[in-house]
Specification:
The complex is a heterodimer of chains A (443) and B (456).
Chain A (H helix, E strand, L loop, with lengths): L7 E3 L2 E3 L1 H27 L3 H22 L4 H25 L4 H25 L6 H6 L14 H4 L4 H4 L2 H19 L1 H9 L1 H6 L4 H20 L4 H18 L3 H29 L7 H19 L5 H29 L7 H8 L4 H10 L3 E4 L2 E4 L1 H23 L9 H7 L21
Antiparallel strand pairs in A: 1-2, 3-4
Helix pairs in contact in A: 1-2, 1-8, 1-11, 1-12, 1-13, 2-3, 2-4, 2-11, 2-12, 3-4, 3-11, 8-11, 9-11, 11-12, 12-13, 12-14, 13-14, 15-17, 15-18, 18-19
Chain B lengths: L5 H5 L3 H5 L5 H8 L5 H26 L3 H24 L7 H25 L4 H26 L9 H4 L7 H20 L1 H9 L1 H6 L4 H23 L4 H13 L5 H25 L5 H19 L5 H27 L3 E3 H11 L3 H13 L3 E3 L4 E4 L1 H23 L9 H7 L5 H13 L13
Antiparallel strand pairs in B: 1-3, 2-3
The chains are: A mainly alpha (443), B mainly alpha (456).
Chain lengths: 443, 456
Amino acid sequence: MTSPFEPLSIGVITFNVGLDLFPMLAATLAAVGCGVLGNFLVLRRLSLMGDAISHSVLPGLVIAFLIASTRSPLIMFAGASIAGIATVVLVELVKKLGRVEPGAAMGVVFSILFALGVLLIESAAVRHIDLDAECVLHGQLETLVWYGAPESVAELLKLSTLDAVPRQVTTLAVMATLSLAFIGVFFKELRIAAFDPDLATTQGFNATLMHFLLMIFVAAATVASFEAVGSILVIAMLVCPAATARLLTDRLAAQIGWSVAISLVCGIGGYLAATAVPAMFARDAVNAAGCISMVAGALLALAIIASPKHGVVTRFIRHKRFAQRIAVEDLLAALYRASEADIESVTPERLAAVLAGHSPSETIARAAREGLVSTHAGTIRLTASGHLAAMNIVRRHRLWEHYLVDEAGFAPDHVHSAAEQLEHVITNPPVGPDRDPHGRRIP
Amino acid sequence: MGAAPPSTLRGRSIAAISEDWPSAYQVVDTLTFQAGFNTNMVIAGTTLLGFAAGVIGVFALLRKRSLMTDALSHATLPGIVLAFLAAGWFGYQGRSLPILLLGGTVTGVIGIVCIQAILRHSRLREDAAIGIVLSVFFGAGIVGLSYIQANAAAGSAGLNTFIYGQAATMQPSDVALMGSIALAAILATLFFIKEFALVCFNDAFAQVDGWPVNTIDLIMMGLVVLVTVAGLQAVGLILVVAMLIIPAVSARFWTDRLWVLVLIAGVIGAFGGYLGSVVSALLPRKPAGAVIVICTGAMFAVSMLAAPSRGVIALALRRAHLRLRIASDHLLELAHDSGKVLLHREDIDRLSTLRGWSPLFRMLVTFSMQQRGLAQSDGNRGLTLAPTGLQRGARVARNHALWSQYLISYADIAPNHVDYSVDHVEHVLSDDLVRELEQHLAKRGIAIPAGETVSA
C-alpha cells in the first residue's frame, strides 16, 4: 500500500499521492457537481426532490445492471435517469391523482422505490454481483488507491498519468463538467424557470422541460457519485452549499459562484479532516464522505450565525444599533419639546419614560459623543447640530400626525404613538402644512 | 444488512443458494406463530410496531410533518454511535439497546430543534432545512460508524443493522422493549385522540378555545419520536419513515372520518409489519425494513387504485360516467330543440363532429342512453327517444334557458357571451337551484322559458 512518493506533511495533515490523490479528487468533483446543481433545487424548494431521487435511483441502477449485466457507466446512467424521471413523475401522479400532500407523496414514492432497490441488491448479491447496500450510502473511496503512483512531481505531471485515473474519477469529472456547463449554458432559462415558470412559458421555452432536464442532471450526479462517494454526500452537497450561498448573497450568479467555492472547500477540507483529525488522536481515518457533509453543515451553521447580510449576529447588531439610534432621537425630541415649552431641562423621570427601557445616562453619553448635546452641571442642552437634528425629528413626527389625521382618517388623539414609531423610519418630507392636528407649529 | 460476509456468500453455487428458500411447512409455521419463541416474539413485536406507526403516522401526515420524520430518523444515527462510544468509555462493553435508543432519541430531538432553528433564524425554507439536518446528521453518524469500525475494540458489529434494520435476529428483550414502546404509543394516542384531532384540523380554533396547542403538538411529536426510535432496530432508520407515512396515506383513500382513518392506518401498518417480519424470518438476509415497506407499499398501491370513494379507478369511473351523462344530455337537448322524437344518424354525426367525440365515445354514449332507458335504437335511422328521454331533454333545455337568463339579467353578461359557460352548467343544476332561479327571475318579472318544471 505504501507509495514511493514521499508523503507531503503540513502540520497534522498528511497527503500521500498514492493513497489520497484520487479519492480526494473524486470527493471534490462529486461535491462540486452536486453543489452547483443544488442552487436551483434550493430556489425551487425542491431540495427534498434531490434527496428522493438519490434514494430512488437505486432500483434503476440494479435493474439496469440485471438487464444488461454490465457496470458500464452508460447503462448505469440510463437506468438511473429513467428511475430519476420515474420518481418525479410518480410523485406528481400520487400528488395529483391521489390528492396527497406533496411531502407525503414524495416520502411514499422514494421509500417504496428505495426499499425495492435494497431488496434487489440483496437478491443481486446472491447472484455474485458486486453491489452492496451500504456502499450506496457511504461509497468506497478506499478502492481508488493508486498502487503504481509516481515517485516525483515531474513524473506526476506527465501525460501518462491520465491512463492511471480510475474510471470513477473520470465519470465524476465528466459529470461535474457537464453540470457546470449545463448551469452555465442554460443559466438564463433556469433562472426564469425558477423564479417565474409562467413567464418562461410565455417567453417561448418550456419550464417543465427545464425542470425535467434538471432532474436528469440530479439523477446523473447521483449515479456518478454513488459508487465512489455514496448517496449521503450527494444529498448533503445538493442542499448545503447552495443553502449556505443563499445566505451570503442575494444575486443568483454570485450564489452559484459561492456554492462552487463552498463545495470545493467542503470536498478538500472534509477529505483532509477525515484523515487529519483522527490522526491528531493517533486513530485511523474515518469516512470521508460523512466528514465532507459534516464540514458542509459546519459552514452552513457559520453562515447562519455570521453571514454579513442575513446572519443572526449581524441582524442582532443591526437591531441593537437601530434601537440605540431611536433612543438618541427620542432624547433629542424630548429636549426640543422642552425648549419649545420654555422649560430649561428635562426631569430624569420624563427622560426614563421617553427612552422606554434604554439607560438615560448611556443614551446621553452617546448623544454627547456625537456632538448633539452638551452637559453642564447636570443640565442637558442641545448643541447647534443637535437642535437641527431634533427639529427634523419633531417635524417628521408632526407631519406624520398631520398625514394620519387628514389623509388616513385617524382621530387626532390616536395618532401620537403611531407617529412616534414612524418618525424614525422616513427620510425628510419635502414641504407640508405648518400646524399639526394638535395646533402645534411644525418646525 | 448489506455487509453480510461476502466471502461465504459470493463463493456459493446457484444450487446452494436455492436451498435458501423456505419450505411450505416453514411458511405456514411462521405465518401461524409456530416457528419458535424468538421468531414469534419478533413477529408480534413488529406487528405491534406497525400498528403504532400507522396510528401516530396519521397525525404526522395531517400536520404535514411526513418528511420531518425522515430527518428525525436519520438524525438518530449519530446518537446511537455516541451512546455506544460513551458506554464503552464508562467501561460498559457490548451494546445495550436501551442506551443506544436513548442516544438516538437525544440526537433525533436535537435534529428537529435544528430544523426549527434554521427556519426561525435564516431565510431557508422547510425543504432545505430538512435536507440539511438529514444529510449532516446522517453524515456525522456515518463518520462515527467508520470510526468505531476502524478504531474500537470488538463488539461494534451490529451497529449498522440500525441503518437497514434486521428484525429476524433481535433478542427477545429488545423485542419486548420495542413492543412496550409501541403499546405505550398506541395507548397514548388513543387517550389524546380528541386533542390531536382538534389541533390537526383547526389549531387556530383550539388556541382561541384555550387548549394548550403547543403542548399537544409537542406530545404528538414526542410520540412520533418514540415510535421512530422503537422501530430503528427492526426496520432501520432509512425506511422507518415509510412505516409512519405509507399506512396513513393509504388509509386516507378509504375514509374521511378520523377514527376510521386511525383504525385503518393501524391495521395496514400492523399487516405490513406482520408480513414483513414473517418474510424476514424466512429469508434472514432480506432486510426486514425493505420487506415491510414493500408490503405496505403494495397496500398503498391497492388503496390508491381501488378505494371506493377516493381511489383513482373510482374517480375515473365517476368522471367517465359524468362525461357520458353530459354527452347524452346534449343529444337529448338537440332532439328537444328540433322537436322530434327520432334522433337521426346525421344529427348524431353532426353533434359528434361539433363536440369532437371519438367514434368509440359516440358508441358508448348511444349505448348508455339505451341502457338507461332514455332511447331505443331504431336500426340504421338513429335513436327513438323514450318518454323519459324526452322529459330529460326538455329539462336540460329549460336549465339552459334559465341559467342564460340568469347570467344575462343578474350577472350582466352580454347575451352572446353566455352560451359557453351555460353549456357546462346546464347539466349540474340541482332541483333546488332551479327553483331558486325560477323565483329570482319571476321576481324581476322575466318570462320563464317554457318547458318541464321541476314540480312536474
